[in-house]
User: Fold this.
Amino acid sequence: MLMLFVASGCLNDDNKIPENCYDGVLNNGEELVDCGGPICPACDPCENGQYDALLGETWVDCGGECDPCDPNFNGVQDPGETGIDCGGTTGVACGELCGDGLLNGLEQGVDCGGPDCEPCPTCCDDMMNGDEIGVDCGGNYDLNIYLPCDNPNVTCGPCPDGVNCANGIMDGDELYIDCGGANCPECEAILTWKANGTTLEAEIDVTAQMDGTTLEIGGLTATGAGLAMILEQPLTGWIAGAQVQCSVASGSSCSYADPAANGYSTNFGGGVTVQIDYIDAQPGGFVVGTFMGSVVGLTGESMNLAQGTFQMEIQ
Assistant:
């Protein structure tokens, strides 16, 4: 008997292309559909949406070995354009280019500066911007998103040891998480709540004051609504996790006034629970917490307070 054996090629590490590299789906770490990433074949540089000048492109995915660039979008301010690749016959307003990751329009840096975009960051603008991890420090100042400082004596460089205002941790001399201290942005004062389902945010006189063992928190909205909480120190002391009950029996009170100056308070009934999430209970410290409950008006009507949050420096 004659037996025939048919040899078939086996996929190996040199020629194996995973199924995801030809499934028509962007997955498994691919840069574009079915190409790039750690496994699939490299993407065509003429289709990657990037300006690869080292590969001969004269603008994004065009020029050099790629197709010629559209004269309206070539990274050059051509005759008739009011900015790089915008205005004139392009049909594109220069302000539309502020978020495309390219240096075009009337920008001074990539997507910043000029009359249309946000100001470009510098290392001497007293702000934490660009890729800085502290105010005017820690950024990569070789990036063209940064503009030079007007003061030639300003030296940009790394932040002091231990400074990182972008790590989501309260460290260094920060007043709270990633804010306050010598090198981080100022901490924002926040006081928000819902009154019978209406979301409100205090924007005026948002303050916290410590008077002995009493903490007073309050603020006004732009429409004149206001919230005031007078909180007596709980038995556990001012510590994270402590709760204060606003009620007649506790001596702590929480009050709300609507824009028409109608007043509601736990002194007239109801009750509000205030949860302290973080506190450094001293002037110059910081407090963070939440609250919810109900307050009652002089004629007995109830006002529900929900989803209340606050964070602010203690005066």
About this structure: The mean pLDDT is 88. DSSP finds no helices and ten strands in the chain. The CA atoms of residues 165 and 178 lie 4 Å apart.
